[in-house]
Design brief:
By secondary structure, the protein is mostly helical. Helix content is about 85%, strand content about 0%.
């Protein structure tokens, strides 16, 4: 899971330093370009984690690869919903400082745990 943590924290750092910068989280979410970039990074992080598990565990197990293909859509929809709900909750109080490392960890570690559990079931 170190690889997953690295991807998650790297994405969070990118958003924090390159997208959000000195802005408050609410200000970033109010700007359509920054908000779009934020959710684009979330999608890319999901795909990075998903393909990590697919390559590491599914390459020699066609049944697991097939299973991953079937659950991918559900996982990404759930991830997007969780990310949106977290963002909405954080935007409710505009002056709150947002820890993006925690935000990304809260969104992606459950996805990684689900993929790891599925990998264990098939191996």
């Amino acid at each position: 899971m170190h690889e997953v943590s690295t991807a998650v924290l790297s994405s969070a750092a990118f958003i924090d330093h390159e997208v959000k910068g000195d802005l408050l989280f609410t200000q970033m979410m109010a700007d359509s370009v920054l908000r779009g970039t934020f959710f684009w990074v979330l999608d890319n992080t999901f795909h990075e984690i998903f393909y990590y598990f697919q390559q590491k565990y599914g390459q020699d197990n066609p049944k697991l690869t097939k299973h991953f293909r079937h659950v991918k859509q559900t996982l990404i929809v759930n991830m997007r919903h969780d990310a949106y709900e977290h963002a909405k909750k954080l935007s409710a109080n505009p002056q709150t400082a947002v820890d993006l490392n925690r935000y990304f960890t809260d969104i992606f570690i459950p996805v990684a745990e689900q993929l790891a559990a599925d990998s264990d079931k098939f191996n």
